[in-house]
Amino acid sequence: MTSDLILSRLRRMIMLDTTVFPEVRDDRSFTSIVAGLAVGAVFLAGLGAFLYGQTVLPFTPDNWFLETAIMGSIFTIILLSASIALTYVVLAEIFKVPVTPDGLGRVMALCYTVYALSFFVFLPEVGFTFGMLSIAAMFYYTVSGVRAAAPEASAGAAVLSVGAGFVLWITVMALISDPGDNFFNGPFVYSIGD
Length: 194
Hints:
- By secondary structure, the protein is an all-alpha fold.
- The protein has helices at 3-14, 20-26, 31-55, 64-94, 101-112, 127-149, 155-176; strands spanning 177-178, 181-182.
- A hairpin with a 2-residue loop joins β1 (177-178) and β2.
- The chain is globular, with a radius of gyration of 17 Å.
């Protein structure tokens, strides 16, 4: 797979060219690449959370890099994987939409790459905007991706399926990102102020 094709797919996804979603759904050779892109986006968000401690906080807690950039990213990757699994279960088992787990996973991982916007949470005054924008964009792109990759899914089924996965991810991230346990990244860094 060429870098031009990878960049083209990312660009088309960002521009909401919905033809990219069935293409990614059916391209098994893209699995490791899109997984790597999503993991890279999560680690960028982790780096942004680390930099938040360096630029915004009056002090940096002990083990800040380990807890945010490393552990926070690992927890986020696990939770986003669980989000994909839950979305699949709700879509395929509850709404009876014919979709394969690997195809749905590729589409959702591609949509999760916009989480890289969370890198900018360390910017004073505008970081929160980037953090919230990253989550909103992830949700919007994922719903669009699911609808395009599984055309049998109604708009409501796509929103509820993706929403179930996001509720799982956000709820567990909120539980593990309190000031005592800094296992967060991206916009969840703002829980440190609680």
